[in-house]
């Protein structure tokens, strides 16, 4: 971790921090990225909007993540929005500088690849529930995913260190805000979650996983 931080400091040694306010858009679909961003502090979401105006959050970036990596490496056109979910501090370098740095530092290649695969794993789990799960399963499973990715564990409890509103969870699950609120209340009444200020506390991750029928949405091939 120390070497990784040293490499990041070296990569952005000639950059200056850029600050975004909560809900401020960083990139729009029609924008051509001006470089590769490193998220130093805060949370940023990648989302898309349907023709009817409905939002679906695809990825939530946390501190330590780079974006947009697919554009940088594969020259993929930017077709989604990037928005600060909280106050955010980012650092930016040119695409050419980022790619050259990866070539010269294989350990950074590994970290970037590991981060991409972790997000891919979360997306695969979300797809299962978005397609096959009911509303209750979708909300419960999304909280499990957020707990695993952004959670702080203490005993059997897990505090999701990402401030999630009902609106945010609705955009992650593809449900309406009203339906999301109903399912969150069900989880609260069951004693599976509770709110601590802006954060959600999972009282028992194993119980929440079972409630979501984690891993049982699609029949096993075994």
Q: What does the secondary structure layout of this molecule look like, with pairings?
A:
Blueprint: H1 2-11, E1 18-20, E2 25-27, E3 36-41, E4 44-49, E5 55-61, E6 66-67, H2 69-74, E7 81-84, E8 88-93, H3 95-104, H4 106-132, H5 135-150, E9 151-154, E10 157-160, H6 166-173, H7 177-189, E11 193-196, E12 199-202, H8 205-211
Helix pairs in contact: 3-4, 4-5, 5-6, 5-7, 5-8, 6-7
Describe what this molecule looks like in 3D.
With about 220 residues, the chain is of the alpha+beta class. The chain has 2 domains: about 1-120, Jelly Rolls, CATH 2.60.120; about 135-210, Arc Repressor Mutant, subunit A (Orthogonal Bundle), CATH 1.10.10.10. Helix content is about 45%, strand content about 25%. It contains 8 helices and 12 strands. The strands form 3 sheets. A 4-stranded antiparallel beta sheet has the order 1-8-3-6. Strands 2-7-4-5 form a 4-stranded antiparallel beta sheet. The longest helix has 27 residues, at about 105-130. The radius of gyration is 18 Å and the shape is globular. Residues about 215-220 have low confidence and may be disordered.
